[in-house]
Specification:
Radius of gyration: 21 Å
Number of helices: 14
CATH superfamily of the largest domain: 2-enoyl-CoA Hydratase, Chain A, domain 1
Distance between the termini: 46 Å
CATH class of the largest domain: Alpha Beta
Length: 317
């Protein structure tokens, strides 16, 4: 059974009726039902396309958080061959919220780093829902420095509600770890491409996303704080998350106009979770296109490209 979002009631009703008719058709005369099934399928597809063409920022937030969206592990499995995951920050511990290691993208050696939320209860607990602790960001720094040493382009997949806010994480220097990871991104002498595949939450996302090119999936979000968190601060009412989401300009469409990101990757009708393979394929093509103009730049040119990009944000508004 599909996991429908709260605003997809019409789609759920139509697809429920289609499923019922198919069940009846399996046990009887299909000719009388085929035409009705086809009609309802066309109607459901049109309704889905119309709905997703006019999602508001809060609805996009819900889509970005959909548990069935392809996760970092899915992108790595499909796009990266010979992937060799590396563990530990060489200082404290391993953090399973962040996956990373060398591999090959389109046959070329790269370093891949990404946040993994998990796909079921057990894996979500194991991955801490994609919320990294300081050791996760220190592992990311270790991998980025390794990439710089061996001249490997860095590809990162962003999908986190934010860095883990627990007491232990703060005691071990969460803010310092995020700052050093962000600084490491900016100092890299190799090309870096980041893709926001779901949620890009706060400094926890930026820590591995200060790249030469930042791409976002069509229904992903990228923000300094969650809409619920912003609503709690501004209005002391998390129920005003819809208003906060709209005011914060967190969608890919808003952020490309503000020049915070560099490209939008189209999702299938109904969101990435309805066709993971197509989404991952489109993402791979977008990464390849973004890497192409960066391959022949020197280390100093790449650093300057990155610095100029971030210094220019907001200047022409």
């Amino acid at each position: 059974m599909k996991n429908y979002l709260e605003f997809e009631n019409q789609i759920a009703d139509l697809e429920g009726r289609i499923a019922e008719l198919r069940a009846v058709a399996e046990n009887g005369d299909t000719e009388s039902l085929d035409a009705e099934i086809t009609r309802l399928e066309d109607k459901a597809q049109r309704a889905l396309k119309d709905l997703y063409n006019k999602l508001d920022p809060w609805q996009k937030t819900q889509v970005a958080r959909h548990p069935e969206r392809p996760h970092c592990e899915n992108y790595i499995a499909s796009l990266i061959s010979d992937f060799a995951p590396m563990a530990g920050d060489r200082k404290f511990a391993e953090d399973l919220a962040i996956i990373g290691g060398p591999g090959r993208f389109n046959g070329e050696p790269v370093m891949v780093i990404g946040q993994e939320k998990g796909h079921d209860t057990q894996s979500r607990l194991k991955r801490n829902f994609g919320m990294a602790r300081p050791e996760g960001y220190r592992k990311a720094v270790r991998l980025m420095e390794l990439a710089g040493r061996f001249g490997l382009p860095v590809i990162t997949f962003i999908d986190t509600a934010g860095a883990y806010p627990g007491i232990g994480a703060e005691e071990r220097g969460q803010a310092e770890a995020i700052a050093r990871s962000t600084d490491c991104c900016l100092a890299l002498g190799v090309p870096m491409i980041s893709v926001v595949i779901g949620e890009g939450g706060s400094g926890g996302a930026l820590a591995i996303a200060a790249a030469n090119s930042v791409l976002m999936l069509e229904h992903a979000i990228y923000s300094v704080i969650s809409p619920e968190g912003a609503a709690s601060i501004l209005w002391r009412d998390s129920a005003k998350a819809r208003e906060a989401a709209t005011a914060m300009k967190i969608t890919a469409q808003d952020l490309i106009r503000l020049k915070v990101i560099d490209g939008i990757i189209d999702e299938p009708s109904g969101g990435a979770h309805r066709d993971s393979a197509k989404t991952i394929s489109a993402t791979g093509a977008a990464i390849a296109d973004a890497l192409l103009p960066l391959k022949h730049l020197s280390a100093d040119e790449l650093r300057k490209h990155r610095h100029d990009k971030y210094l220019a944000i907001g200047r022409d508004l």
